[in-house]
Amino acid sequence: MKHRFLFAGLISACAVLFAAAGCQDEPAGAPVIDGELAMKYAQGNYDLGPRVFRTEGAAKSAEWIEEQAYTMPGMPETGWNIVTLHHDPIRTVEIVFHQKGRAEDNEDFIVIGAHHDTKKLFSDPDFAGANDGASGVGALLAMVAAVGDYMNSRPLPCGLRFVFFDGEEALYQYTETDGLLGSRDYVEYLRRSGQLEDPATGRRYCKAMILLDMIGDKDLHIALAGNSTPGLAKVVLKAADELGYGPKFSLGDINMLDDHYPFLQAGIPAVDLIDFEFGPKNCYWHTGADTMDKISAESMKTAADVALLTAWRLASNGFKDL
Ligand SMILES: [Zn+2]
Fold first, then answer.
1. Is the distance from CB of 99 to CB of 157 less than 8 angstroms?
2. pTM of the predicted model, to two decimals?
3. Model confidence over 61-91: pLDDT tens digits?
4. Distance, CA 203 to ligand 1 centroid (Å)?
5. What residues does 87 pair with on adjacent strands?
6. Residue 212 is inside which H or E element, if any?
7. Which CATH superfamily is domain 35-316 in?
8. Which of the chain's ends, N or C, has fewer CB atoms near its CB within 10 Å?
9. Residue 227 CA to ligand 1 centre (angstroms)
10. What residues have a C-beta under 5 A from ligand 1, the ion?
């Protein structure tokens, strides 16, 4: 992940201290994930080793994600597909659930994303990023499994795209040509192919983007990036409260350069669910201490369930909150 103060204090920190405790099993009208399954997928992704952009590791990671989706039990027989963007050297994978009965080329949709590449650590060439990389991949794959099964009987009134971005990590430092390459490329791909908006009327098809990054930390506290779209951030906090996860979420005041940023630049409401306090003083971040023992099934489930409920709430009320 990435981060940098773009401009400080745009949105003041606001602790969200909801009293609810525990977690209900069946939130009204949205699927929930199996946290252990998310952990299993995170482990599988982690076990591939370093997944650095422009290397065989990232290419293997993309292939592995595709393979998991194609072999996933419970997927509907029709209405979904996988698009792998081989925009050399970028390997971004998109798992698409189409809205039932809607022409695929003009459907409204929500993007739920995470990056699958890992940071190249010059000090630790074996760095494989459990939290910073694998946790987002695990959560997204478990969401795909939950949604595939759920949408068989209760379809969402819009399309849903799970996007595994390549090239999020900067090799050196975030610039226009280093870092966020997969998400920039993806937004451009949507625009070029007429999927971002109707070229004739300007009506936007891509309604919202929900990003998950570093959400596996056992000691989870998600501070939504300060440059998240305020209306969308509100829906996320409300969903967290509804699920009993309110105390683990707040609106942060740090503006992140993360994969939601190219969406914001394109005028798409976007939110970044990120826990940028990984270990004491963030000391596990981008170090060899980012290992599987630092992440948990429960944390991935917390972030994933909130993201899914957010998507369902947005779509169910016709995106009026944005
Ligand atoms: Zn990172």
1. yes
2. 0.91
3. 999 999 999 999 888 888 899 999 999 999 9
4. 34
5. 90
6. strand 206-213
7. Zn peptidases (3.40.630.10)
8. C
9. 18
10. 1, 119, 132
